[in-house]
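User: Sequence recovery, please. Input:
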């Protein structure tokens, strides 16, 4: 019964529109265009035959890692525990440095433009010849105090993992969050490819965001947020 309620029940809030308990909804592309933007301009375009939301970086050439990348903060959604799903595609942008990986992912429990949790992908790492680089295909970080490089230095291999994927193709991402734990599922996998048991911002709530690197050509569609 709980699963049915999540799928069909939309609780009405007294205040401004926001995601409430027992609600699950897909966020229309038109609504994404009204997101609060950081370091990018929003656009709706076509990618591989489907309409998609994209972000055009305002300052090309800036570092492409988590706190420096473009961020679209969805308005009217306060997320605590639940599931975030989206189809996304990321690849290094034309003219990007050879170190570019096509960073793209989902931010959650956003506290500000520079303070948020994020789980993202490095698509070009998945099929690299270097096994260590393959192991860096997925990444969790918490900006600004727990960036990827600090987590990697202090806890090697704990906050990143390998998963099979291709750059520049649609990839279904599902992130589940409860308390101070989160898990990442790719495609229709029954088991997560990345688990985090100590979310660095603690058991808080906040908006959901779409994130990518400054040196990424990235696209999003079928964004859905469900609350527990």
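Assistant: Recovered sequence (228 residues):
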């Amino acid at each position: 019964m709980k699963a049915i309620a999540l799928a069909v029940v939309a609780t009405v809030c007294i205040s401004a529109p926001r995601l409430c308990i027992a609600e699950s909804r897909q966020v229309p592309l038109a609504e994404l265009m009204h997101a609060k933007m950081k370091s990018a301009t929003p656009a709706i375009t076509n990618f591989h035959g489907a309409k998609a939301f994209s972000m055009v970086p305002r300052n090309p050439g800036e570092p492409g890692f988590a706190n420096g990348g473009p961020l679209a903060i969805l308005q009217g959604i306060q997320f605590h525990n639940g599931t975030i799903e989206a189809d996304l595609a990321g690849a290094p942008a034309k003219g990007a440095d050879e170190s570019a990986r096509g960073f793209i992912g989902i931010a959650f429990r956003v506290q500000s433009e520079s303070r948020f949790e994020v789980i993202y992908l490095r698509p070009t790492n998945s099929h690299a010849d270097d096994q260590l680089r393959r192991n860096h295909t997925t990444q969790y970080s918490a900006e600004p105090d727990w960036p990827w490089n600090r987590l990697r230095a202090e806890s090697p291999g704990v906050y990143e993992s390998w998963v099979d994927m291709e750059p520049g193709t649609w990839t279904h991402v599902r992130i589940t969050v409860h308390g101070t734990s989160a898990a990442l599922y790719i495609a229709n996998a029954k088991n997560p490819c990345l688990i985090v048991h100590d979310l660095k911002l603690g058991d808080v709530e906040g908006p959901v965001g779409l994130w990518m690197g400054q040196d990424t050509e990235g696209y999003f569609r079928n964004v859905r947020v469900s609350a527990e």
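The CA atoms of residues 175 and 184 lie 5 Å apart.
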